[in-house]
Amino acid sequence: MSTQNTVLGILGGIAVGAIAGVLLAPEKGATTRAKIADKAKDLKDNLNNNVDTTVDRVSEKLDVLKEAGSNIIESSKSELARAQQNL
Question: Cα(37)–Cα(23) distance, rounded to whole angstroms?
Fold first, then answer.
């Protein structure tokens, strides 16, 4: 969680710095707005990629946990069946 917060903080800082740099640059308004739109699109694309990557990782870990849980359940059923036979 701390790494994720750090990454989000860095991305936010980069976005704020980029926007401030574009706004303070001595260019025409149309050019400035186009640059802001481009930076916003880049930021959105990066954020979408990060979210997709995070979702994929969580999904993979969830699959591993489900399989481990299923193995524990099957093992417990086997142990219970053996215990019942021994009684």
Answer: 12
Contacts of residue 27, Cβ cutoff 8 Å, sequence gap at least 6: 35
pLDDT in tens, 29-77: 788 788 888 988 998 898 888 889 999 999 999 999 999 999 999 999 9
- Which DSSP string corresponds to 23-55? HHS---HHHHHHHHHHHHHHHHHHHHHHHHHHH
> How is the chain split into domains, by residue range?
2-86
CB 39 within 8 A of CB 19: yes
Q: What is the pLDDT of residues 3-29, one digit of tens each?
A: 777 888 888 888 888 777 777 777 777
